[in-house]
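Hi L.,

You mentioned the student needs an example of a multi-chain input paired with its predicted structure. This one should do, with 513 residues in total across all chains.
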Amino acid sequence: MVKSRIWGAAARVRPWLPAFAVALAAGLAAVGGSYLSVGRRPAFVATPIDRLVIAASPDALVTFAITQLGTLGHRVAFLTAIALTAVLLGLAALPGAVLLQGRGSVSGASGVRGGALVGVAAGTVLPGAVAFGLTRSPISSAGTAAGAGLVFLVTAGTTLLVGTEDVALGSLGRRRVLGAVGSAIGVSALGLFVRGTGEETVPSGLEIPEDARPEVRESLARARDRSLDVEGLEPLVSTDFYEVDIANVNPAVDREAWTLSITGAVEEEVSYDVADVEAMDIEDRFVTLRCVGDQLNGRQMDTALWSGVPVERLLEAANPQGDRVVLRGADDYYNEFPIDALWPGLLAYRMNGRPLPRAHGAPVRALVPGHWGEINVKWLTEIEVRDEETMGYWEHRGWHGTGPVETVAKLWQVNRLGGGRYEVAGHAYAGTRGIEGVEVSTDGGDTWVAAELSEPLPGDDVWRQWRHEYGAGGRHDVIVRARDGDGNLQIPEQDGPKPDGATGWVTETVRPQ
Ligand SMILES: Nc1nc2c(c(=O)[nH]1)N[C@H]1C(S)=C(S)[C@@H](COP(=O)(O)O)O[C@H]1N2
Ligand SMILES: [Mo]
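Structure written out for the whole complex:
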């Protein structure tokens, strides 16, 4: 009984499968068309869906993606959003596909052409309208409509040309479904070819721009010269700066329209534009950032030479009355912390001698000395001064990452020099406390020796490199620990990043090769 009912249902659905396939192909082509027209920008039709996906994701999943997957997590989440958007736009295209499928029953040449045309029109306009509802961008919506429309044209094309004579064309045959899928893949591939993945290449600290200010060139050259000469070890200015964002599509803030407002518990609300900020004296600072979600020996810790204006200069004019601040970014990210931490901060608009990349917060981001990365708000638009404490974006999700960083020594490089000789090296960071020393044990913690340290770079909030060379017989355990500028040893107790940063000493088993 049940079996036959299922069979009955399947038999009823079956004739419509080609229509579903064409609609899905149109949905994919619609996403591809939008991407081709605007790239990985807020106007891309999958961006709003991406936001919904992230908002709906359980905190544990978001935490896992950020702390374990990094960039890979972003890619997976972004592809998920794209797939969902293709399905959504495919549903919008379905009425068109059904009309196209059904047009075979209309008799007479003009009837057939008319039916097909209505199908093509519906399959084009409906996804376009949905895109406009999602993005409010005419260009992106036109791209969406064009992508879907192309699939419908390819699908209907043969019939329109041949007319009614060929009755076998009265349904969406396999060949036309293949044509639909093929053109959808074509549009998407073209979008990828023209726009790339949308992942920005960020200036490496090793390339010193010709046109940078002499001070910047000098500082970057100094950082290069002071970097320890260890094969495979990242220099003092990172060549590949990590990125942590709440969204998969970064805001594209219009420099000309951008303003930064200082609001709330202030004597006078003030607002600055790019010209105001750039008119002030520029200052260069080496600053290290580390995400609170970084694993103990993870890679979400990097250093750049940032240029901008001290926060102080902008804050003073507002004369703040409260002792807390909320910083807000153009991506609706926000973070809250004591105003005392913000006063010594920098509002950066250049990075390693180049304009601040979009990925790192263009046109202006905050850099707050010594605290976890999350309060260094990117695409900064507002500083709200408050009397009372409140929670930031990550606090609402169970993190306590607004305070000063934990001390850490990373073990990022193990080089086998031959003849039983080894070289181990890494970076150590303790925020504004500074690094006084790094100690290494190559016998599992029985004995400790001081590692060689890189010359400190100017700055109150910057890492140092360490290196140690030794001989060993066989397999052995290397442990590293840093001592901060106050003389405190790095916390030995092992603990994961959530909620307030990883602790413990990095340990690695080294085997001879
Ligand atoms: N507007 C905005 N600012 C932000 C974030 C964000 O998602 N949006 N991420 C924060 C986090 S968690 C970290 S660790 C740092 C990372 O800065 P980076 O991406 O330039 O490395 O930016 C912080 N500022
Ligand atoms: Mo972070």
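You could point out the following to them. The chain has twelve helices and 19 strands. Residues 228 and 410 are 15 Å apart (CA to CA).

Best wishes,
N.
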